[in-house]
């Protein structure tokens, strides 16, 4: 219902005088009301209206708070239109203030207002810091399994107990303010358990009302503060809260009991205090016997605290004339709160002059600086007290006895000694000063001040606002507009949020994610993806849901076969012997994997096939042989469900693999072990039903008879394939599309996919809301556009290619939008960024279905193929949806549309009319399918230097149109190479910049690998040693170095390290081998550089540049400098002879090797030896046959079998030309290209 109309009869509405400075319209509702909406309109019959305003509210009319809602408060756009704005959360207040921000440029401000809401019943209690309310129970103690407590409070103090109760057995509950945040202590008969509610941290001492609602049922607790809810469970097994005698509100009346805390009593007001439905304040007002009021009053006093906000870091100031001091000298004191680590707090001229005194916030701490003739004569800091934490801090500045003292929060003061007495001259400038009055080298103060005193006299800011005292600029009076930009924490994946007055930043260190909000995983989603990027077998971190919530986990990727296997081990890899177990006391083994249950589920569901081998060797130990058919042993699946099939058979059937193969020892039974003989038997099988994997527990219950024994083992979980990579759909009608549920992308979203088409344009995907939308489209044959609107107006990012994108080849697109920025990437083209507006709308509100390949209007549809569509780490099953949609078919035609990986090591498959070719220009490998290593033998004087054509930053890659934003989260290198050497020390690779930064990869004197990062020239280099063993052993070693921001991932013996947040700028060159001229090198690096490298280097990749291959195929280029002899070689063959020599040695690498598990069997040693020798002989013969077949295949030229001429000499010449073009090489002369296909 309408509460009040503000029309100003006779004038047609409110309009301020033209001479009024910062006018506002204030509404007094006469009593506290709950306001739910406001309507605004321009003045009647005039050109005066307001197009934007701030809404402030207050209980007292003195201390104001800005109403904030993401969708903004409504605006009046024309003189006749009425705009009603519903408040997303109602406010309970008496006063409203409308502060115009924008108005009709052809007229003036004009406003008519109507306020909607309802009356509000308030039961208030005022606590003075020494009082409390005691609610006494009817019985001696109260034991509850459910509690509901609700209240509202306001205070200007940072400390104070709101609620406390305790019992004799150790139970207690305490809710208190501590350093401006709310802490809940809860103990249900167990050890101390504490919960800090971070969602409301730091801003609860602002003298405004805050609501608290706590619900507890058994151990489950829900705590809501100002609409922010946190849910958690208490520790231990206790379910009831036992409190003796009483609950206290506002303080702890008798401190010192067990479980109590030496905290201050609450100083402020509480309203509508309810405990389990009982109105405690109402009982106290009616003087009921169960309530002891303890000096509590029932009207809320209003402290006369008037704050002001300094809005600008460049032009804000408050100039105040000082009243005469009672004695010589001067003094100033005030309170401040800010987030900014730097800012000018106070500046004044001293007499005798010329002297200046400045008080600054520097690095989050206070500095007092005295200047004589603009030269700093002395700097004195406070006692290390940090003041940029968002809390109120008191500051006092005094002159006495020939020194100036600075005191912060009552701590011991810091002093500046004086040669003679001084006095202030002219006005005191707070927060900054006009440029003609001072020349401060630091920004103006951004934050709040209150309780300003000069020479012991309070400064009346109301007179300042009326223009009767002092002067000011960019100042907001009567309110402290501090905002906690880390509330809620918009940094993802548990990243740490830090903030200034105008923005926030996320520290992604140790999270495994990167980006402005730590949204993007730095790891691939599967072993299959690592294989496609050119990696080899080893331990890797994979993130199965990408930017989703699961996080990365370490797995072993086995890439030695055609299939890429993901291997996850558990805690019981060795065979387990079981005796003396029965159904009453069974043997139970719980398997703990290297990944969480949710990660395991994501890996299994995203794989094409998974399996796990189980081996059960037995002697008089049955599996199923019982009269009633109930199993004697079983295993639990990933959901904890009992399973009784043992490998190789369908789920739900109590049989073993021998029954399926019809080769059981006794065909009367379905398992070998069920024959129940005194001889050893074995049931081995492979579990391959994905929905049941992995095995979580094994239970054995039949080894308690005489002579009975069982030995079992469960192999690691092994999965292959990535269902999302080649999941594709073909669109052949412009009006066709696939639809999916609405995107859940309010605060952050990333969209990635591949496409190929011959159409000039088309919409890839679109999702709309009432006003908001998000769209990715091919806007022209050579441009991809990412557009969206979250309420700030349409934002558009476009990436244009110099080559057409509708060339029927696969192209990669990734679009991301978060609350800080948006980005768009197409293939390897420069990444485009667009910074989000400050204090703009954050949430993308969508309501329609997600349309893929078209739009809801069935216009501008996409014609072509889309594959591997992933949104926020979730892969979309395009093929399944395409099977039931007209105009769309599952899969995509063409040689390059399958999962057979025709091109390897980052090679790009290009469709041809009669086959395909592999574009190896982005790969460090050569050959028809990008799988032949490019190897060169170096001697001590050899080196290859690749000079980048222009100052080039691999980290920034942004357009001139993109906004300038921090590059911290985008600094990255991706380096990979192989080497064979016996030399130590040795220089493998160096990257240098024009600013004397460098990266050096060396072998130290002991042969260990060292990676030197010198990105900050003012500090010593950071050195990482991931492999401490000797790598100068004549074997082939593969190194991969991947850095994104602060995260450094090194694969040798895989290890993750942390690095500082810096980036290479203006990269000059990359050098392999000996370095002759380079400054600023550390002594150890310099020694390795002078020794050079003796051995073989192959397959060198730096981001998207292959310098070693460029050196071999473009020797005449001005970008390539070769010193000393280079001999084409084969590192793999060179190392193979060494590996044969060392075949019997134990590997020192941490990568696991295939392990043969020998189970106990009853057989002679001779038979065992014969079998072992036979197996070894078979392995040797297989190896020889494989080498012979490989040699025949290598000598067979460029044929690719069924492709039938798809790779020809024409491809060799064309790809060379493309590679030279891509590198912008000046001289196309080539020496010997017969063995390399680019």
Automatic annotation (TrEMBL):
<feature type="domain" description="Laminin G">
    <location>
        <begin position="124"/>
        <end position="300"/>
    </location>
</feature>
<dbReference type="InterPro" id="IPR050372">
    <property type="entry name" value="Neurexin-related_CASP"/>
</dbReference>
<dbReference type="InterPro" id="IPR036056">
    <property type="entry name" value="Fibrinogen-like_C"/>
</dbReference>
<dbReference type="Pfam" id="PF00754">
    <property type="entry name" value="F5_F8_type_C"/>
</dbReference>
<feature type="domain" description="F5/8 type C">
    <location>
        <begin position="1"/>
        <end position="118"/>
    </location>
</feature>
<feature type="domain" description="EGF-like">
    <location>
        <begin position="482"/>
        <end position="519"/>
    </location>
</feature>
<feature type="domain" description="Laminin G">
    <location>
        <begin position="727"/>
        <end position="892"/>
    </location>
</feature>
<feature type="disulfide bond">
    <location>
        <begin position="865"/>
        <end position="892"/>
    </location>
</feature>
<keyword id="KW-0732">Signal</keyword>
<feature type="domain" description="Laminin G">
    <location>
        <begin position="307"/>
        <end position="480"/>
    </location>
</feature>
<keyword id="KW-0245">EGF-like domain</keyword>
<dbReference type="InterPro" id="IPR013320">
    <property type="entry name" value="ConA-like_dom_sf"/>
</dbReference>
<dbReference type="InterPro" id="IPR008979">
    <property type="entry name" value="Galactose-bd-like_sf"/>
</dbReference>
<protein>
    <recommendedName>
        <fullName>Contactin associated protein-like 5a</fullName>
    </recommendedName>
</protein>
<keyword id="KW-0812">Transmembrane</keyword>
<dbReference type="Pfam" id="PF02210">
    <property type="entry name" value="Laminin_G_2"/>
</dbReference>
<dbReference type="GO" id="GO:0016020">
    <property type="term" value="C:membrane"/>
</dbReference>
<feature type="domain" description="Fibrinogen C-terminal">
    <location>
        <begin position="518"/>
        <end position="570"/>
    </location>
</feature>
<keyword id="KW-0677">Repeat</keyword>
<dbReference type="InterPro" id="IPR002181">
    <property type="entry name" value="Fibrinogen_a/b/g_C_dom"/>
</dbReference>
<dbReference type="InterPro" id="IPR000742">
    <property type="entry name" value="EGF"/>
</dbReference>
<keyword id="KW-1133">Transmembrane helix</keyword>
<comment type="similarity">
    <text>Belongs to the neurexin family.</text>
</comment>
<feature type="domain" description="Laminin G">
    <location>
        <begin position="954"/>
        <end position="1131"/>
    </location>
</feature>
<feature type="domain" description="EGF-like">
    <location>
        <begin position="893"/>
        <end position="931"/>
    </location>
</feature>
<dbReference type="InterPro" id="IPR000421">
    <property type="entry name" value="FA58C"/>
</dbReference>
<dbReference type="InterPro" id="IPR001791">
    <property type="entry name" value="Laminin_G"/>
</dbReference>
<keyword id="KW-0472">Membrane</keyword>
<feature type="transmembrane region" description="Helical">
    <location>
        <begin position="1155"/>
        <end position="1181"/>
    </location>
</feature>
<keyword id="KW-1015">Disulfide bond</keyword>
């Amino acid at each position: 219902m309408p509460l009040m109309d503000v029309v100003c009869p006779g004038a047609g509405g409110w309009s301020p005088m033209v001479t009024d400075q910062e006018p506002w319209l204030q509404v007094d509702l006469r009593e506290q009301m709950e306001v739910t909406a406001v309507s605004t309109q321009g003045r009647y019959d005039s050109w005066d209206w307001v197009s934007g305003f701030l809404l402030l509210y207050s209980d007292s009319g003195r201390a104001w708070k800005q109403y904030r809602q993401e969708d903004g408060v409504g605006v009046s756009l024309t003189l006749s239109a009425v705009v009603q704005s519903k408040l997303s959360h109602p406010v309970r207040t008496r006063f409203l203030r409308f502060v115009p921000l924008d108005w009709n440029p052809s007229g003036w401000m004009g406003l008519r207002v109507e306020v909607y809401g309802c009356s509000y019943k308030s039961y208030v209690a005022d606590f003075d810091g020494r009082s409390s309310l005691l609610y006494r129970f009817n019985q001696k103690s109260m034991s509850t399994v459910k509690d509901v407590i609700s209240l509202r409070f306001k205070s200007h103090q940072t400390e104070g107990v709101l609620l406390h109760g305790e019992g004799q057995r150790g139970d207690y509950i305490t809710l208190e303010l501590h350093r401006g945040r709310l802490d809940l202590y809860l103990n249900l008969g167990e050890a101390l358990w504490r919960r800090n509610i971070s969602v409301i941290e730091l801003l609860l001492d602002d003298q405004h009302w805050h609501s608290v609602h706590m619900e507890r049922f058994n151990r489950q607790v829900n705590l809501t503060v100002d609409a922010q809810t946190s849910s958690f469970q208490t520790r231990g097994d206790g379910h009831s809260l036992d409190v003796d005698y009483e609950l206290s509100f506002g303080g702890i009346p008798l401190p010192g009991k067990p479980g109590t805390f030496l905290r201050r009593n609450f100083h402020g007001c509480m309203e509508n205090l309810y405990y389990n439905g009982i109105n405690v304040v109402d009982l106290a007002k009616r003087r009921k016997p169960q309530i002891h009021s303890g000096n509590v009053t029932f009207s809320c006093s209003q402290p006369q605290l008037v704050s002001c906000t300094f809005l600008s870091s460049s032009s804000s100031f408050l100039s105040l004339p000082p009243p005469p001091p009672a004695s010589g000298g001067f003094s100033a004191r005030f309170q401040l709160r800010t987030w900014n680590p730097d800012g000018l707090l106070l500046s004044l001229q001293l007499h005798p002059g010329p002297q200046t005194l400045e008080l600054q916030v520097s690095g989050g701490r206070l500095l007092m600086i005295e200047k004589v003739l603009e030269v700093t004569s002395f700097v004195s800091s406070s006692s290390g007290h940090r003041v940029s934490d968002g809390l109120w801090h008191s500051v006092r500045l005094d002159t006495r006895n020939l020194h100036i003292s600075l005191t912060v929060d009552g701590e011991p003061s810091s002093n500046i000694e004086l040669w003679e007495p001084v006095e202030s001259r002219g006005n005191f400038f707070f927060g900054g000063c006009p440029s003609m009055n001072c020349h401060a080298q630091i920004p103006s103060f951004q934050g709040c001040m209150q309780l300003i005193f000069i020479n012991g006299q309070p400064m009346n800011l109301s007179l300042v606002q009326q223009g009767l005292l002092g002067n000011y600029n960019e100042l907001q009076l009567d309110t402290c507009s501090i905002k906690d930009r880390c509330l809620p924490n918009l940094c993802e994946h548990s990243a740490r949020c830090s903030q200034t007055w105008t923005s926030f930043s996320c520290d992604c260190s140790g999270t495994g994610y990167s980006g402005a909000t730590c949204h993007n995983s730095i790891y691939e989603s599967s072993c299959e993806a690592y294989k496609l990027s050119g990696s080899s077998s080893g331990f890797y971190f994979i993130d199965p849901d990408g930017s989703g919530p699961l996080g990365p986990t370490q797995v072993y990727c086995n890439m030695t076969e055609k299939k890429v296997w993901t291997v996850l081990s558990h805690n019981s890899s060795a065979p387990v012997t079981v005796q003396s177990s029965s159904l009453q006391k069974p043997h139970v083994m719980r398997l703990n994997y290297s990944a969480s249950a949710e990660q395991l589920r994501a890996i299994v569901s995203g794989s094409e096939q998974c399996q796990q081998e189980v081996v059960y060797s037995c002697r008089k130990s049955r599996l199923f042989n019982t009269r009633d058919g109930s199993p004697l042993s079983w295993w639990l699946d990933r959901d904890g469900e009992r399973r009784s099939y043992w490998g190789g058979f369908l789920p739900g059937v109590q049989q073993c693999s021998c029954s399926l193969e019809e080769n059981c020892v006794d065909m009367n039974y379905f398992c070998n072990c069920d024959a129940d003989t005194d001889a050893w038997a074995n049931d081995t099988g492979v579990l391959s039903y994905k929905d049941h994997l992995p095995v979580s527990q094994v239970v054995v219950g039949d080894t308690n008879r005489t002579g009975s024994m069982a030995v079992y083992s469960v192999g690691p979980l092994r999965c292959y394939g990535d269902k999302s990579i080649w999941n594709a759909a073909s669109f052949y009608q412009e009006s066709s599309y696939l639809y999916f549920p609405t995107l859940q992308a309010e605060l952050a979203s990333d969209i990635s996919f591949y496409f190929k088409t011959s159409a000039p344009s088309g919409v890839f995907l679109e999702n709309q809301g009432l006003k908001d939308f998000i769209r990715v489209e091919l806007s022209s044959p050579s441009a991809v556009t990412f557009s969206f609107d979250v309420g700030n107006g349409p934002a558009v990012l476009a990436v244009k290619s110099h080559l057409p994108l509708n060339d029927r080849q696969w192209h990669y697109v990734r679009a991301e939008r978060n609350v800080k920025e948006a980005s768009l990437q197409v293939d390897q083209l420069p990444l485009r960024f667009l910074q989000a507006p400050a204090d703009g709308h954050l949430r993308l509100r969508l309501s329609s279905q997600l349309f893929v390949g078209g739009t809801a209007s069935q216009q501008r549809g996409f014609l072509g193929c889309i594959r591997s569509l992933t949104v926020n780490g979730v892969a979309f099953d395009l093929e399944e949806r395409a099977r039931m949609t007209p105009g769309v078919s599952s899969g995509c035609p063409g040689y390059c549309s399958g999962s057979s990986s025709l091109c390897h090591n980052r090679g790009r498959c290009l469709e041809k009319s009669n086959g395909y070719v592999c574009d190896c220009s982005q790969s460090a490998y050569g050959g028809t399918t990008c799988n032949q290593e490019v190897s060169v033998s170096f001697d001590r004087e050899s080196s290859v230097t690749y000079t980048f054509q222009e100052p080039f930053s691999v980290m920034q890659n942004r357009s001139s149109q993109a906004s300038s934003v921090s590059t911290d989260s985008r600094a990255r290198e991706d380096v990979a190479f192989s080497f064979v050497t016996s030399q130590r020390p040795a220089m493998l690779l160096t990257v240098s910049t024009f600013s004397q930064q460098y990266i050096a990869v060396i072998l130290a004197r002991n042969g260990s690998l060292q990676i030197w990062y010198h990105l900050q020239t003012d500090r010593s280099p950071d050195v990482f040693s991931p492999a401490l063993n000797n790598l100068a052993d004549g074997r082939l070693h593969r190194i991969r170095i991947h850095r994104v921001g602060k995260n450094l991932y090194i694969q040798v013996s895989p290890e993750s390290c942390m690095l500082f947040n810096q980036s290479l700028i203006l990269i000059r060159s990359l050098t392999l081998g000996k370095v002759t001229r380079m400054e600023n090198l550390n002594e150890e690096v310099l020694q390795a550089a002078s020794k050079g490298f003796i051995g073989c280097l192959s397959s060198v990749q730096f981001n998207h540049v292959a310098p070693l291959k460029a050196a071999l195929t473009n020797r005449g280029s001005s970008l390539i400098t070769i010193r000393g002899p280079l001999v084409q070689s084969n590192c793999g063959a060179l190392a193979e002879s060494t590996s044969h020599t060392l075949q019997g040695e134990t590997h020192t690498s941490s990568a696991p090797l295939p392990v043969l598990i020998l189970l106990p069997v009853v057989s002679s040693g001779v038979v065992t030896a014969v079998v072992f020798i036979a197996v070894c002989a078979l392995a040797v013969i297989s190896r020889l046959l494989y080498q012979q077949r490989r040699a025949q295949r290598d000598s067979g030229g460029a044929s690719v079998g069924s492709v039938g001429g798809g790779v020809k000499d024409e491809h060799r010449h064309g790809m060379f030309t493309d590679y030279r073009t891509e590198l912008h090489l000046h001289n196309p002369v080539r020496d010997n290209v017969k063995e390399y296909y680019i």
